[in-house]
Amino acid sequence: MTHPHLWYPNAREKKRKVFLHVGPTNSGKTHNALKRLEASSSGVYCGPLRLLAREVAKRLNEANVPCNLTTGQEREEIEGAKHNSVTVEMADVTTEYQCAVIDEIQMVGCRTRGFSFTRALLGICSDELHVCGDPAAVPIIQRLLEATGDVVTVQYYERLSPLVPLKTTLGSFSNIKEGDCMVTFSRREIYKLKKKIEMAGNHLCSVVYGSLPPETRTKQATMFNDEASHLNVLVASDAIGMGLNLNISRIIFSTLEKFDGVCIRELTVPEIKQIAGRAGRYGSKFPVGEVTCLDAEDLPLLHSSLESPSPIIERAGLFPTYDLLSVYSRLHGTNFFHPILERFLEKAKLSPDYFIADCEDMLKVAAIVDELPLGLYDKYLFCQSPVDVNDDISTQGLIQFAENYAKKGIVRLKEIFTPGTLRVPTTHNKLKELESVHKVLELYVWLSYRFEDSFPDRELADSQKSICSMLIEEYLERSGWQQPGQRRVLPSLQKLSQEYDAPQLRKYFPEIDARSK
Fold this sequence. Notes:
8-stranded mixed beta sheet, alpha/beta, 6-stranded parallel beta sheet, globular, single chain
């Protein structure tokens, strides 16, 4: 654990040329790195979000550079492709590339996901490695790569368009204008603010937050960006900080505090800068960005944060490979994953440049799967799965999948989920429930790529996921203020009715008639 760079012999055989592209949001750093990727004979893009991986795959394919998409829940293979766009956890450290790009490298310091960025940084086997992110990551990246013998070049970028911190607050909600984005940090608050804005004037709102399905987030962002759309204001969480191209004129913080899963705390300098930086996208309708707050008491923190550099990242996340845990398991003569992981993390000695990833959620899953007659590798995979252990429905889904897999070796989706039972949510709680069902379906798809023969209903899970997203979009459509007689069938709903069985969709959407079919 003190020399993790030696875990990746393929990468160590090369003397990689590493280029750090660092600067604020909207500075063109990732754009330049992607230009190099496009020009390469083979390559990989590693991003923190599925939305980003999909966007880069689309960009490369449109530039006539065939590019596959690989995420935990998606595989899209393009004939003849020598490029891949992946979520960072899916980075392949055995394949050789001419060029690789790792985006948002400051996440190397993230307590839960940082180890995936460390793995990509140390392990990707490419002639050129382009690493993009916040300047705060430069010292730690340079220290980690001293041990690898790679040649490191740092290129600093300035923001391409101005960002103006306003000296006054929003004031009345009637001052909301086209292109505004109101930022808050809970689902309930998002819908409260959406209603308030829509009741105050001539604007309808798109919404974007983390527990919305990625497809729904993308569609909400697209409608906000579309000048022909009636949705010209955005209400969002910090999910807008990365992964979506948004034409925002002004960011308005409703608060500078958030609940982080442990306690309510002030936003950090990097969080404020990342969100505020989304205003005034270069080349958009709003080339000058503005940022302000609802509460005058928040203005000093907003202004001081925007003027401050992000704190230097001191250490990078690390997590043991399965091979290390397997050896440790054999040495201790046990197949129980929870005590093995707990003891390993306790005893591990690290170099001062690393910290052990926060494995609290993984340990909760380990306690569940240790009750079942499963092999160590199967337990490891279930612990790596994207289950939300703070969501009861998602956790129950995982337990059912693991139990059925242990008992029968095959998990049919219909055993725990009945297609045809989903409905358009009528309340906030029903919406939350449907978002949780979507997580369970995503979990099934994720598992189907790891236990291919044992989770055979991927196509059914995918189709139900799409219906889930449409039902959530329909809820968002209905929750918007509108004059009587303005109901309309969503274009995406019409598209879905062509892809799937229209009579089945009529169960969920009575307004689908013969014409929309």
